[in-house]
Amino acid sequence: MTSKHIRRLLVANRGEIASRIFRTAQASGIETIAVYADGDVNAPFVRAADHAVALGGHTPLDTYLSTEKILNACSMTNVDAVHPGYGFLSENAQFARAIQEKGFKWVGPPADVIEQMADKLTAKSMMHEAGIPTLNAIPVTSGTDALAAANDLGFPVLVKATAGGGGRGMRVVDDANQLQAALESAQREAQSAFGNDTVFLERWITSTRHIEVQILGDTHGNLVHFFERECSIQRRHQKIIEEAPSSAIKSKLRVQLGEAAVSVAESLNYSSAGTVEFLLSGDEFWFLEVNTRLQVEHPVTEAITGFDLVHEQLRIAEGESLGYTQKDLSMTGHAIEARLYAEDPAQDFLPTSGTIKKWKPAKFARFDSGVETGTTVNIEFDPMIAKVISHGRDRNEAIRKLTRALEQTHIQGIKNNRDFLVQTLKTPEFIGGDTTTDFIERVAPNRERPFETEDLHCVLIAVALFSQRRTNDQDEPGQPRLKSQLPAQHHAFEFNGEDYDVKCDLIADQEYRVVISGTQFDVRVVLIEENFVDIEVDSRRVRCNLYHDENTWYVHTSSGHLEVRNRPLFSLQDVTHRTGNLSAPMPGKVLTLEVEGNTQVKSGELLLVLEAMKMEHRIVAPYDGVVSAIHVSVGDIVEKDVLLVEMATPEQN
After folding, report:
1. What are phi and psi of 306, to 5 degrees?
2. 468-504, pLDDT tens digit by residue?
3. Could you give the CA distance from residue 466 to residue 607 in angstroms, rounded to a whole number?
4. What is the DSSP string of 397-415?
C-alpha cells in the first residue's frame, strides 16, 4: 500500500513532456523514474530523471504503449505514482486501472471518466443530453452507408477517429469521390496511433476558432477553470501556435465558456487536470471533446495564471484539496506558445529526421524541449523538437518576444518549421487577431524565410572568408603570409537551388575585395574565431555563427538561420526531376502499394502510401505516364531519397 505522499514518480512518456514533469517533481522533492525505448537511450529526458528503466524495443507499441513493460518498470523501481504525460497511454482507461490495481497512484482523472470521454461519440451524446451544443456526427461501422451519411451531413465532412487526438485519424473530405480513400486512411492511422480504428463523420465548418478551457478538480468535489486558450493555428489538424487568452473572446463569452466547461466537468465528477474543447464561430460555440490529460499547450495557461499545473496534479493525486475557488483565479498579460517541429513546411510539412548539429535556445523565453546538440530525431515518434513560450504585458508584446526568441534560437542540421512560425507571427492577420482554423490556407504565410539579396550576399561573404581563413590556417599554422603570397580565392556555393561564385581578394591587412556574380563589395574582417565571424560589408556590420558539416554550412544571423552548400557535383533532386523517378521524401515504412509495374496512371493518382512519425503520406504521380518499375514492397522500411518508383511518359515507354 502506498503512502499518501508521492516519494517516487514514474513518467510513462518521453521527450519534452517527460523532462517538464521531472522538473516540477524534483523541485517538489520527489524522485523521478524515466522509461525509454532503445532509440532514446541517450535522450536528455532519460538523463534528467533520477533513475531510468529500459523498455526494450524501438516502436511505440513495443515501448511506451506497452502496459506490461511499464508496470514491470513500476514494480522494479518501487514507485508510488505514475504520470502519463500526454499521448501514448495517457487517455487509456485500462492502463489507468492497471496502474491503480497494482497499488500505484494515477496522476490523472478517474479511469471511468477517461473511458467515457475516450470515445468521442459517447462524449458528444452525453454533452448533447446535458444541453451543451454539439455538432452532428454519424459513426461509421461495417453496416454504415458512409456516402449516404456524408450526404445527410452535407459536404465537406470530417472523418475523425473516436479515440483520436493530435490530428491523427482525421481527414477533411470535400466530395464523394474522396470519401472511401479518406475513411481507409484515417482508420489505418488511428489503428497505428491509438490501437482503435473506429471513426465517425462530422459536419465540417471551414472557418472557426478552436477554443479550449483548462479545468482542474480535486477528489473532494471542488472544480475550477483556468480560462481559455485559443489553438486555431493548425496544419494537418495539429496545433502549432496556441495563446491565452483568446483575442476573440470578451468577458461575457468567457464566462459562458468557463461555466460550460465546469458544467461538463461536474457531470463527470472530474478530478485532476483536463481540457474541454469547443469550436467557436462568432458568439456561437459547439462542444468538441474532453481531453482527459495534460495538454501540450498547458504552459500558456501557467504563464497567465501563475500556477504550475503539474504541481497541482501531483497535489490532487496525493489527496489534497485545491485550496482556492474560481474567484481566486485571474489572468495577467498574454502568453503564446509555438511548437517547433522537425518538418519541411515547403514540402507540405512533411516530417523530417536526422541529427541536430547545434541546439542553442534563446534566453528570453520558456523552452520546454527534449533535445540537445547531437540528439537524433527518428521516424518512430512525434517530430516535435520543443515548445517555445512567451509572456508579455499584452498580446503585441508576447508576439514580439516569441518572434525574437524563435529568430535567436540556433537549431542546425535538421529541417524544421522555425522560419515558418516566424513568418506566421509576422503576418498582419495574426497580429490583428484574425486567427481561424483555416488560417494557413487562407493567409498562406511564407513557408520559408524570405531573404533580401543584400542579406544573402553578406552571409556568402562570411562563409567564404571563414572557410578561407580556416583553410589557410591549416596549410600554414601560425605562419603569417604576405598579400603577394595569397592569390584571389574562389568559392562556389549553392543556396535554394541557385549557384553563387564568390571571389575573395586580400588587398590590405584584414581588408578584402569580394566579388559575387559580378557585384563588388569592400569587406573588413573585425573578428574570425571558432564558429564565429564578425565583418563589415560596405560599412554594414554582420555577425554570423557558423557550423560546417560535410558539404553544408549552417549559418545563424540576428535575423535567423539559413543553409549554404558547397556546390555539389550533381543533385539527386535534379536527376529525379529529369527522369520522373520518385524517391522517398523522408524515411518511413511502405504501408500500401496502389499500382503495379507497367501501369498507366494519371497525374495526381495515388501510387503508394508511406508512414512516418505516426502519420500517413501519399506519394502521387507527378504527371500522366507509365509506372515502369516499382522498387519497394509493402512493409519495407526506406531511408530518405531511396528510389521508390520509376515513371516514364507514354512516349518514352
Report:
1. 85, 5
2. 887 765 544 444 444 444 567 888 999 988 889 999 9
3. 46
4. HHHHHHHHHHHH-EEESS-
Give the model confidence (pLDDT) of 114-144 as tens digits: 999 988 888 888 888 888 888 888 888 888 9
Give the list of residues 6+ apart from residue 320 with CB closer than 8 angstroms, or none.
218
Give every CB contact of residue 357 below 8 A, 6+ residues apart in sequence. 373, 412, 413, 414, 547, 549, 554
Q: Cell for 315?
A: 497535489
Query: What is the DSSP-derived secondary structure letter of residue 9?
Result: E
Query: Would you tell me the crossing angle of helices 93-101 and 67-77 to the nearest 10 degrees?
Result: 30
The closest of 605, 633, 631 to 619, measured between CA atoms, is 605
Contacts of 475 (CB under 8 A, 6+ apart): none
Q: Rounded to whole angstroms, what are the CA distances from 403 to 55, 126, 272, 383? A: 39, 41, 33, 21
Give me the amino acid identity at 73.
A
- Tell me if residue 571 falls in helix, strand or coil: coil
Sequential DSSP letters for 420-437: HHHHHHHSHHHHTT---T
Rounded to a whole number, what is the distance in angstroms from the first to the last CA of the chain? 73
What residues contact 381, with CB distance under 8 A and at least 6 apart?
14, 15, 60, 613, 614
Phi-psi category of residue 193: left, alpha or beta, with phi > 0 → left and psi -120 to 50 → alpha: alpha
Please say whether the dihedral angle defined by the alpha carbons of residues 318, 319, 325 and 328, taken in this order, is positive or negative. negative
